[in-house]
Structure formats: C-alpha cells, structure tokens
Amino acid sequence: MRLGTGDRLRAAAGAFASNGRNPNLRRAQLGFLGAWTAEWAFTVALGIVAYNAGGALALGLVGLLRMVPSAILAPLLSPFADRGRRERVLVVVSLLRGLATAVAAVVVALSGPVFVVYALAVLSTIAATLFRPAHSALLPTLCRTGHELASANVVRGFLDSVATLVGPLLAAVLLAFTDVSVVFAVAAAASFWAALLLSRVRYEAPARSAAARPQLVREAVEGIRAVAGDRDLALILLLAAAQSITRGALTVFSVVVAIELLAMGEAGAGTLMAAVGVGAVIGSLSASLLVGTGRLGAWFAVGVALWGLPIALMGVFPQQAAALLLLSLVGVGNALIDLAGFTLIGRLAPDAVMARVFGVLESLVAVSIGVGSVLASALIAWIGLAPALIAVGLLCPVLATAAWWRLRRLDSTVDAIDADVDLLQRVPMFRPLPLPSIEQLARGLEPVEVPAGRKVFAQGDIGDRYYVIESGQADVVGDGRVVARLGAGDGFGEIALLRRTPRTAGVVAHTDLILRALEPETFGAVVMGYAPSARAAQDGVDGQLGRFSPPGVPAHTPPDSTA
C-alpha cells in the first residue's frame, strides 16, 4: 500500500516518538550518540597528529595500524555479546575507550612520544569495533516489530549523522582555539557519558548461553558461517566493505584535500568532515520517511552508490564550495546505509549469533577502512590527488549497480516475513516476544490447507504441531461437543505441546482452512525460552482448560519448560 505524504510524515514522527517513549531505547540511542561523537572527534584529532608527524603516508599507515588488530579481534570478542547482557558489553567498551582517549590527551599535552598515541588509538579502535555489533544486536531485543526496528535504526542513523556533524565540527572549533589534546579530552568525556547512559538500560532478555568456559574461536566461526550460509547477508556485508574502503580513503582525502588542494588549513579537515555530517543529518531526516516502504534493499544500494560518486566528482570539481556540497551527499548516503543496512542485517541474522554477525561486519569494516586509507595514500603518491579521488570514488557506484536486482529480490523476501510476523502477533502468547524471536517462529511456519468438514487432528492424538489460522474458521470439539469456534489470527494446539499430553480436544474445519504450522521444537524453544511469552502461554492454557478440562488433565498443572 502506498503512503501519502501526510502518512509518511506521521510515520517519521512516530519513529522518533516511539524511541523517546521507550526509556531503554532512549538510553541506548543517546549512549550511541555519545560514543560516536567521541569516535569522530578522535578520528579528526588523530589525523592531525599523524599528518604533522609524517604527512599523507603516515595518515594512511596509522589508519591501517588502527584497523588491522580490530579486524582480527572483533569477531573473536563479539561472542561475549551473544552470551550475556549486551548493554554490559557496551558499558565496558565505552569505559575502555574513554580511558584510552583520556591518556592520549595527557600524552599529547605533555608532548610525549607519538607512538604512544598510536598505541592508544589501536586500543580505542579495538574497543570501538565491539561497540556497534553489541549495540546493533541490542536494538532488535528492545523492539517488537520490523517497523519498530526500522524506526530504531532511523533514530540511530539520525544520531549517527548528528555525531558525524558534531564530532568533526567540535574538533574543528577546538583546533581553531586550542590544540589536539583538548579534542582528545572532550572525546574521552563523551565516551564516559555513553557508559553512564548504557549502564541504566533495563530489559528482560531471552535466555542465552553463559557457559563458564567460552570457546571464542569456535563461536566466532559460527558467526562467519551464518554470513557465508546466507547469500543476502553476504552481499550486504560485501557492499558494506566497499563503502568502508571509501570511508578509509576519505579519512586521508579530507586532510590532504583541505591542506594541499583547498588551502583550508588543519581546521579545514574538520570542516570537510562536518560537511559529511550536515548531509547525514539531512539524509537521516529524509530516511525517516522511508520507514515501512518495503524497499530497504533498493535504498541500501542508493546509499552505497552515494558514498563513492561524490568523491569521484571532487576530483573533477576541485573547489571548496563543490567539495562541501559533494561531501554532504556522502552524508546522505551514510544515512541510507544506516537505516537500510542495519535493519536488513537485524532481520536476516539469527538472534543467537546476531552479535557475531555484526562482529564479522565490524571486522570487514575495520580492515576495509585500513585498506582504504593505505590505498588512498598510495594512489596520491602514484597518480596524484585528483585521479586518486576519481578511482576510489567509482568503486561503490559500480558495485551497487551490479547488486541492484539481488537487493530488490531481498525486499520481496522481507515483505513476506513481515506478513507472517503480523499473523503471529495476533496470538496473545507471541505478543511479548522480541522481534528476533518472533521472526525465528515466522521463518519456521509451514502452510497447511484443510477442506471444510475435515479434521485437523482428533482428541487423543499425539501433539506434533502448533497451528495459527491464516483464513477460515475451525471448531474445537471435546467429548463430542463444540466448545469453541476459532477464526483468522487464532492459534491452537499448544496444550499438548506444553503439557506433553495427548490432544485434549479435536479441531475440525468449519470452512476451508488455510493454516500456518510450527514444529514443536521451534515452538517450545522460542516460547518457553522467554519469560514473558512463557507466562502468556501458561495463562492461555489455564484459561482454555478452565473452560474445558478433559479427564486426567489437571487444569493448573505447570507446563513442562522442555516441551
């Protein structure tokens, strides 16, 4: 269904309002704002330190030095976020980043060895690569529907854009009046603020593995296998890697273009990156109108293309006004990637390995940023600045064009899952489930058709499936009499699965029935693995058995949690 302009504006406003009303989402999102403001300010400050120490080549090498350890460690450490409370991982990460950045501020203020600043940058970046996987895996747990998750990613994308603007702009202002050490100090304060906010997140999470002896390599490999086994996930991560190569190159280009091509001075590097932030803020507000469009794959492709094409055009139009305008378009692309890319990964990745999938993403991003920074430095030395801008800038548009039709097919798949999620959420016991859990059920649904007058199952049969009615009506028959009539959106069959008893009543198709069926292993693992849905299931079963309790089945026996 197409939405009018007024409907889209209301949906966009609702996206921000829903995050504001939910205290956990609000704290998680503001924590992200603090962490990413710190990241962008830190990046500008480190770039100035590296350029002053060794020019463009040092810029590229420091970029690579920061990212390689992160690329190796991100997938190995991300299993911790799948094993326990993800917000606790975020708090620890933010504290580590704040501490490393604060020490860097002291070293620079005292004119200490530059290699110490580089080492602290590596430590801070390792911690930073764990932040987004844990945060990205936390958001779906705090959401109930795909629309709410898209809304959360819209808000996070907007805050990311604000951070992309505020971090570099803050660095530019501070560099104009103070020095690099003050920029580091402010970045450290922003990280500590993020830790404080995230420590106050409270929610009820599904049970996760918490074995005493984590096997990090094996668990990390499970995340890699989850990506390799899903062509759509693999494609999204490949395009994200291409965007990150361009992003790494931009950290070099922004400094060299500002100082050597546009004569804007050191503060100009912050100004150019702030232009990306301006575009990202505008793009995020525009992206909020896309919630519920069902075309996230297509918009993801557009975002990837916009990360490269404006950089290529900077090589053709090397003027300050043109550079600021073109970099703002890069920011628009960044906003589209934040909305579409992270929402799609959150929809496709299984909850049990979601942080590890995002860890694989961060690993690819980290190594790609490092490669991009070195590539930009090498190309500048080899073919010159303008040709280097064009060569790097064409990478993303070419890949996005090649992936267009695959991403459009992915949109159709997500639309089908949304319809199944909507159906399941009409059943009371499924309503409390977080989005990853209910999507796990939706992916396990199997279609079943039963003609009018035929039995779905008989009283006394072994319970082997749970059913939800997609269309039609069914009669519940116990001891030869009709005790209830069910319609579209009603579910049945849970008593035998939860109590491990024969069917307490039969079900007969009153009209032609179209059903969606769940196997008991999937049903039991999801419903009984999450306390609110388990309580809702218990209440539903007790209510049914209170109306009709066959001989030998007590109305209030506790459900078997292993069913």
From TrEMBL:
Membrane topology note: Multi-pass membrane protein
Pfam assignment, any one: MFS_1
Keyword annotations: Cell membrane, Membrane, Transmembrane, Transmembrane helix, Transport
One term of GO molecular function: transmembrane transporter activity
Top-level taxon: Bacteria
GO cellular-component term (any): plasma membrane
SMART domains: cNMP
Compartments (UniProt record): Cell inner membrane
Sequence segments annotated as region (Disordered): 541-563
Transmembrane regions listed in the UniProt entry: 30-51, 57-77, 89-109, 115-134, 154-176, 182-199, 233-259, 271-291, 298-317, 323-345, 357-382, 388-407
Name listed for the protein in its UniProt record: CRP-like cAMP-activated global transcriptional regulator
